[in-house]
């Protein structure tokens, strides 16, 4: 009888990197179609597995699936799913035509979902479009380390530069015109606003405001994952920057030239702080901190920004800007500005008010017309109403010399000279330390504001699939932080104002028809062109026209607030309502920055309060069952098990469950809460009440949910076990997860010694039933012998192979398979 040895052509792993990449790509489609844990195991086994006994028939090694499974998980109809399962059921072959086998046999119920979508080249066309993935570079599996690094670099570049992903698939005919018009529109009214931010708020020449919108925005457009985000100087952060540098630039009665020179350096240093903070947060992956923004805080913030901008817009719209400066109300809270507007309404400039409100009315009318008739008349989408109004009013102001009639225009702006240099030198280190704390606070508030934009501003879905924007990466807070960091890095060397995501202008960019980051690129390029060559064109631009455009942004910020507030009332979300009222109230009375800061502080306190309380549960047995235990403080969804009184507490034993990882933050009250459960058997009774349960109880702790544990938590566990041992009670652990690091930590901390009673091995059990049985049989009452090396039975864990170790691991597995085959041959010969 001729024995057959191991043949690598009969197994799933090909000997070439190209075949490995092909298999990995086909299974990546499976992973995209489902997120189940078995799917990951199946995917990994498909890549790192070898065939079983070659004597088995080929049909036994086929991946089996059913039309129902294929229909459910691939989105195909039943006929197509049946065809797909037929194709998948066929034996697979390698490039040379040899049949491939798989050692894994899965039933349709277990792995049918993934098997149904595991594709061959012959059925790739039947995979839905959303499941299509890019073929992996075969160099990822090359034995040459340099080739692997080069292949990884390509994917890293696409990760941090999303333009490499969306630009190749950009639909020129569908969205190019709208993106260009949106970019020009946003540039037309943001450039004049930047002039005001620079001179009025930050005490620097106007050109530094323009530079903040130009080159940093260009860098951000290449790295952003939010299609319609527009970055640049913001009024809120600009006000905070001006307030932070005021004590230093006006110290010692300086001349206006000295004030300007100091302000330029201080502003550049604050931009440098933004760069450092954003890069550190991005590369350390701290983007999750945007989760501090609750729904109520987000709504309150957006409404507060809308209210502040409304007050700031009405003053120039009515021609009261100079009067506001003379009376000092420009730096007052929004409530004072509202009172100023009402008081001085009779003194409003008629021409300015007419231009503002007529322009605003035309914009609103065009917005309504576009929303109602865009499907019938596609050209309405391409009408740049805002840009047309700006151009028209500028020409009219020039022809009719409205500036001589009291109309405020933009006026003369000096052309900037680019000098790339670092603001941080030996002579400015002290200045940097002066504004470091303020710069960090401003940058964090800027990050939260950018996070608000990233969560709420997305292009509207197209009415026609032909006009769909290109595929964009999923928005990532970490990548947005890195993009902001590099954008501000370039701004630092140009001494520009700090750049962050602006909700108002991003909303306006979306309203103007933007679909991709190309609108941001057009905005940046047009700003650069105007800054260095066309500044005289905006000389006669009326500021009331800019106020009308800002009025549209204010409306966009406030239009969703009533619906959200009514929704909070309907569901009795009193905490969110209180947060909205608090942020708006503080903003009206004091400042937007203080309102948002207080809101963030309350959110942080709420999160810490929730995170630091251990959610320890008391368990009780469900009547009529032997091993089913429920949380006694929370009724089950099963109607037959909702009566808490019917749950059975085990006499003399306190059953508790720790359903979460333990760390220093949530272990401070663990021992106290355990004593409370021992006295009352529930967490719902006040600790001032007399005890309802006897104190002489053993404790069984269910650790199935405790997936991690730090040194502080281990110390607390040791203290708890020591306390109960001193009282002559037993503490038993059940269902400890098989994490080697955790078990080794317990051993090094001495917890195993504390859990070994009367010479028995540590009291770890596979289930609660086993622990109860050990207590019932008085196992620990009799002497035992414990060898420390036989500490805890650790089941063999499945090893996950890294990409760099793929080739080496495959070779090791081949060697193991060959040794097994040799052993089979020896055994069979001995049997003969």
TrEMBL record:
Which Gene3D superfamilies does this UniProt record tie to the protein? STAS domain
One Pfam family name from the record? Sulfate_transp
Regions that span the bilayer: 155-174, 180-198, 210-230, 263-284, 296-318, 338-365, 377-398, 429-448, 481-501, 521-541, 548-571, 577-605
Signal peptide annotation: none
List UniProt keywords, sorted A-Z: Coiled coil, Membrane, Transmembrane, Transmembrane helix
From which domain of life does this come? Eukaryota
InterPro entries, alphabetized: SLC26A/SulP_dom, SLC26A/SulP_fam, STAS_dom, STAS_dom_sf
Q: Where in the cell is it found?
A: Membrane
List, alphabetically, the CDD domains matched.
STAS_SulP_like_sulfate_transporter
Q: Domain STAS spans what residues?
A: 643-775
Q: SUPFAM superfamilies this protein is in?
A: SpoIIaa-like (SSF52091)
Extract one GO cellular component term from the record.
Answer: membrane
> Where in this chain does the entry annotate a coiled-coil region?
803-830
Q: Where is the composition biased (Polar residues)?
A: 68-87
An individual GO BP term: transmembrane transport
Membrane topology per the entry is: Multi-pass membrane protein
Name the segments for region: Disordered. Answer: 1-20, 54-114
Asked if the record carries the keyword Transmembrane helix, the reply is yes
PANTHER family registered for this protein in UniProt: SULFATE TRANSPORTER
Question: What protein am I looking at?
Answer: Sulfate transporter family-domain-containing protein
- The record lists the organism as Lipomyces tetrasporus
Lineage summary: Eukaryota, Fungi, Dikarya, Ascomycota, Saccharomycotina
């Amino acid at each position: 009888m001729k024995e057959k040895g191991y043949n690598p052509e009969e197994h799933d792993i090909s000997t070439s990197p190209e075949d490995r990449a092909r298999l990995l790509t086909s299974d990546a489609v499976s992973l995209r179609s489902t997120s189940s844990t078995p799917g990951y195991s199946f995917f990994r086994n498909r890549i790192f597995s070898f065939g079983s006994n070659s004597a088995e028939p080929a049909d036994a090694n086929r991946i089996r699936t059913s039309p129902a499974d294929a229909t459910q998980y691939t989105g195909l109809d039943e006929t197509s799913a049946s065809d797909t399962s037929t194709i998948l059921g066929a034996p697979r072959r390698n490039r040379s035509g040899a049949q491939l086998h798989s050692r894994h046999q899965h039933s349709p119920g277990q792995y049918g979902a993934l098997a149904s979508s595991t594709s061959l080249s012959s059925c790739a066309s039947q995979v839905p479009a959303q499941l299509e993935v890019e073929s992996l570079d075969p160099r990822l599996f090359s034995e040459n380390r340099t080739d692997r690094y080069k292949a990884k670099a390509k994917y890293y570049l696409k990760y941090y530069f999303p333009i490499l992903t969306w630009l190749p698939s950009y639909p020129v005919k569908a969205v190019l015109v709208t993106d260009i018009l949106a970019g020009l529109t946003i540039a037309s009214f943001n450039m004049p606003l930047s002039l005001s931010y620079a001179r009025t708020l930050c005490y620097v020449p106007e050109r530094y405001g323009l530079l903040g919108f130009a080159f940093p925005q260009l860098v951000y457009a290449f790295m952003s994952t939010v299609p319609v985000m527009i970055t640049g100087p913001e009024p809120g952060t600009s006000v905070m920057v001006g307030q932070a540098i005021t004590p230093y630039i006006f110290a010692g009665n300086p001349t206006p030239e000295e004030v300007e020179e100091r302000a330029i350096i201080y502003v550049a240093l604050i931009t440098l702080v933004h760069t450092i903070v954003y890069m550190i947060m991005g590369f350390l992956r701290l983007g999750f901190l945007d989760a501090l923004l609750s729904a109520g805080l987000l709504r309150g913030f957006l409404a507060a920004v809308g209210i502040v901008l409304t007050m700031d817009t009405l003053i120039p719209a009515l021609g009261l800007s100079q009067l506001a400066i003379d009376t000092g109300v420009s730096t007052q809270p929004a409530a004072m500005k509202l009172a100023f507007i009402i008081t001085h309404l009779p003194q409003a400039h008629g021409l300015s008010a007419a231009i503002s409100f007529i322009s605003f009315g035309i914009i609103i009318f065009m917005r309504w017309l576009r929303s109602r008739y865009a499907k019938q008349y596609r050209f309405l989408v391409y009408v740049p109403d805002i840009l047309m109004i700006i151009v028209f009013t500028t020409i009219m102001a020039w022809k009719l010399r409205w500036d001589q009639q009291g109309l405020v225009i933009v006026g003369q702006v000096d052309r900037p000279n680019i000098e790339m240099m670092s603001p941080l030198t030996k002579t400015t280190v002290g200045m940097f330390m002066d504004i470091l704390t303020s710069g960090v606070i401003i940058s964090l508030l800027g990050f939260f504001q950018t996070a608000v934009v990233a969560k709420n501003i997305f292009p509207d879905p197209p009415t026609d699939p032909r006009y769909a924007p290109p595929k964009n990466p999923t928005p990532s807070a970490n990548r947005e932080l890195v993009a902001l960091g590099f954008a501000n890095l370039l701004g630092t060397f140009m001494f520009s104002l700090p750049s962050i995501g602006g909700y108002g202008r991003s909303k306006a960019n979306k309203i103007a028809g933007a679909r991709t980051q190309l609108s941001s690129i057009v905005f940046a390029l047009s700003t650069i062109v105007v800054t260095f060559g066309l500044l005289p064109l905006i000389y006669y631009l009326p500021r009331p026209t800019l106020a009308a455009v800002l009025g549209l942004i204010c409306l966009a910020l406030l239009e969703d607030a009533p619906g959200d507030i009514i929704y909070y009332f309907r569901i009795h979300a009193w905490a969110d309502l209180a947060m909205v009222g608090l942020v708006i109230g503080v903003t009206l009375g004091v400042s937007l920055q203080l309102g948002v800061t207080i809101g963030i502080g309350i959110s942080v306190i709420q999160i810490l309060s929730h995170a630091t309380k251990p959610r320890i549960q008391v368990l009780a047995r469900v009547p009529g069952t032997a091993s089913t235990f429920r949380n006694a403080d929370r009724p089950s969804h099963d109607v037959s098990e909702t009566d808490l009184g019917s749950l059975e507490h085990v006499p003399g034993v306190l059953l508790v469950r720790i359903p979460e990882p333990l760390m220093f933050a949530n272990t401070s009250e663990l021992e106290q809460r355990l004593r409370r459960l021992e006295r009352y058997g529930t967490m719902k009774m006040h600790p001032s009440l007399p005890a309802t349960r006897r104190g002489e109880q053993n404790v069984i702790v269910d650790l199935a949910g405790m997936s991690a544990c730090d040194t502080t938590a281990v110390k607390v566990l040791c203290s708890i076990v020591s306390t109960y041992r001193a009282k002559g009670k037993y503490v038993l652990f059940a269902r400890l997860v098989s994490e080697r690091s955790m078990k080794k930590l317990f051993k090094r901390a001495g917890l195993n010694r504390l859990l070994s009673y009367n010479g028995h091995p540590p009291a770890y059990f596979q289930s609660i039933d086993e622990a109860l049985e050990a207590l019932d049989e008085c196992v620990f009452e009799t002497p035992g012998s414990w060898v420390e090396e036989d500490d805890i039975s650790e089941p063999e864990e499945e090893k996950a192979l890294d990409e760099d170790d793929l080739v080496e691991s495959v070779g090791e597995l081949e060697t193991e398979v060959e040794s097994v085959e040799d052993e089979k041959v020896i055994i069979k010969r001995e049997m003969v």
